[in-house]
């Protein structure tokens, strides 16, 4: 194998490995695999809390989590339900922030 071929293969390997590592890291608009799993777990815990709560009953509340920030959206019947849903989300371990976009109908 010539020195140039060896060098070209080395660069190709570095580029391939660099791409694989980049796929596991997060960016401002994309979560890493670990962050995605954490966000899914947070979403599940928030939804469970909403369903089990007698005030919110999770009616028409949508929950999405991105990088430890929970977004609540949908409709609730009272201001109390809106505030309670936000508190339930804030109480879940791992939640850093809550965006409460719920609308009282």
UniProtKB/TrEMBL annotation:
Respond yes or no to whether keyword Signal is given for this record.
Answer: yes
Q: Which domain of life is it from?
A: Bacteria
Provide the leader sequence positions. Answer: 1-22
Q: Where is the BON domain?
A: 38-105
Keywords attached to this Swiss-Prot or TrEMBL record, sorted alphabetically, are: Signal
**Presence of keyword Mitochondrion:** no
Q: PANTHER family this protein is in?
A: BON DOMAIN-CONTAINING PROTEIN
Name the record gives this protein: BON domain-containing protein
Species of origin reads Ferrovibrio xuzhouensis
């Amino acid at each position: 194998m010539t020195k140039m071929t060896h060098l070209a293969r080395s660069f190709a390997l570095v580029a391939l490995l660099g791409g694989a590592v980049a796929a596991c890291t997060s960016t401002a608009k994309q979560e890493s695999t670990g962050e995605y799993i954490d966000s899914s777990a947070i979403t599940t815990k928030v939804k469970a809390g909403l369903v089990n709560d007698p005030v919110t009953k999770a009616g028409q509340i949508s929950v999405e989590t991105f990088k430890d920030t929970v977004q609540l959206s949908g409709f609730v019947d009272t201001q109390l339900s809106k505030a309670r849903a936000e508190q339930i989300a804030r109480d879940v371990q791992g939640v850093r922030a809550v965006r409460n976009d719920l609308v009282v109908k």
